[in-house]
Write a structure and sequence with these properties.
The chain has two domains: 330 residues, ANL, N-terminal domain (Rossmann fold), CATH 3.40.50; 95 residues, 2-Layer Sandwich (GMP Synthetase, Chain A, domain 3), CATH 3.30.300. Helices cover 33% and strands 26% of the residues. It has twelve helices and 21 strands. Strands 4, 5, 6, 7, 8, 9, 10, 11, 12, 13, 14 and 15 form a twelve-stranded mixed sheet that branches. The protein has a four-stranded mixed sheet with strand order 20-19-18-21, covered by helices on one side. Strands 1-2-3 form a three-stranded antiparallel sheet. α1 crosses α6 and α9 runs parallel beside α10.
Length: 433
């Protein structure tokens, strides 16, 4: 951006930030929140007229709009977006950015990004200048906060993007750390930078914490924000112990800025600009896939989009917000273990249940993975301080599976495999589907 363009962008951010602040009381009153959401939904529906995919559904009811997933979102890329951008053209720019590690190019003034593809399918996303300004305002309002002094942010991610670069300002120094390169280079940069805020996926934050414990890295950031991967309670506890502060979370994905940590440490959906519908996946109706509509995304509208994530419902929060509380982001639908009971019915075991069985089996575990690799085969690996840990984990998993009615399962310990640079960590995976 030129200096003039940056000043104009700064004014947009300030305007959206002011809007967030003026509507803050809506987060604490259900009726006011519903009115704000309804007003924004009406404006959003008018803008959907520019989407060839959604235009035919606008004369009907909300329920007439189809629920879609990532496959449909990408397959209908050309028809869904409102600025006539072709998928092939956008993909070419995104892939070239990946190859060159230069993430600045835009397409017709629109930032183009490529998701990391945790679910096995990489996705393109588009963001206009105004959408980037709203994102920056939301992040400032909900995650980073505003201070009238310069702060340095170390942001660890597989790929940078104009969306993230938009957060730069005279008060925020944004430093991108590429997770695909050697970690030792990051330690040297962090020592020199001494960031006030560190943002990264839990697996990266843990590596940083280990370097701090070893004495190879000295730094005391004011804020640690976990993104991109599931932050388990035990990882949060470890990181909090090393850095002597609560670990905050931002639930951010290709589909938008979904949730943030409140002052009580609980995750809340951003329902002042998101509509959250639920597709329950368990009989107790405690776990669901969120079906999201982002009322701020109009370049590439996100409408009734079913995420693959499994969300555990949380109770009302003591912070006073009426927005939906997330107890835990448990994993993805394809992390659920599935088996056939002796009577022929299908049984399921959710990732959090497997996680708790592993970590409660022994205190000697430092790292682990559990994979269902065939209909009746589960393989696990561990890093442990104890030679008995493998037997303890195998016993705990066996007891869990037997209790669930999985009678014919074989459990095998395997050697640990390192996480490839730039990949997200998934401790529990179903690879048999």
């Amino acid at each position: 951006m030129t200096a003039k363009e940056r000043r104009k962008f700064g004014r947009k951010v300030l305007r959206h930030l002011l809007d967030f602040r003026l509507n803050r009381s809506c987060l604490y009153q259900q009726e006011k929140l519903a009115r704000l959401q309804n007003r924004r939904r009406k404006a959003f529906m008018r803008r959907l007229e520019s989407s060839p995919f959604y235009r035919p559904y606008l004369k009907g009811s909300w329920e007439d709009i189809p629920v879609i997933n990532k496959h449909v979102f990408m397959d209908q890329f050309d028809a869904i977006n409102t600025c006539s951008i072709k998928k092939e053209e956008a993909m070419e720019i995104a892939l070239e950015s990946e190859r060159s590690r230069d993430f600045s190019p835009e397409l017709h003034g629109v930032a183009v990004g490529l998701s990391s593809g945790t679910s096995g399918h990489r996705g393109l996303f588009l963001a206009s200048l105004d959408e980037r300004a709203k994102w920056v305002a939301a992040v400032l309002d909900r995650a980073i906060g505003i201070q009238f002094r310069k702060r340095k942010i170390a942001f660890f991610l597989r790929a940078n993007n104009n969306l993230y670069e938009s957060a730069k300002s005279r008060l925020l120094q944004f430093d991108f750390f590429d997770t695909t390169i050697d970690f030792d280079e990051h330690i040297l940069r962090l020592s020199t930078l001494q960031p006030d805020i560190v943002i990264g996926q839990p697996s990266v934050l843990i590596e940083i914490a280990k370097e701090v414990e070893k004495g190879r890295l000295e730094m005391a950031p004011e804020q640690i924000i976990s993104v991109a991967e599931v932050l388990t309670p035990e990882d949060a506890s470890y990181l909090s112990g090393v850095f002597k502060k609560r670990i905050e979370q931002v639930y951010q994905c290709t589909e938008g800025f979904l949730a943030h940590t409140c002052e009580e440490g609980a995750l809340h959906f951003n329902e002042d600009f998101l509509i959250i519908e639920r597709k329950y996946v368990d009989e107790a109706r405690r776990r669901y896939h969120p079906i999201i509509t982002d009322l701020f995304r109009t370049t590439q509208p996100v409408v009734r989009y079913e995420l693959n994530d499994i969300i555990q419902e949380g109770p009302p929060c003591s912070c006073g917000r009426v927005t939906t509380r997330i107890k835990q982001i448990e994993g993805r639908a394809d992390d659920v273990f599935r088996f056939t009971r002796p009577n022929g019915s299908e049984g399921v075991i959710f990732p959090d249940t497997i996680r708790r069985a592993v970590i409660n089996s022994t205190h000697a575990i430092q790292e682990y993975t559990v994979r269902q690799t065939a209909p009746a085969l589960v393989q696990f690996s561990i890093h442990s301080l104890s030679g008995e840990a493998g037997l303890q984990v195998k016993s705990a998993l066996g007891a869990l599976f037997q209790e669930a009615g999985w009678q014919d399962v074989t459990i095998v310990q395997e050697s640990p495999s390192p996480i490839k640079k730039g990949e997200k960590r998934r401790r529990i995976k179903n690879e048999s589907i």
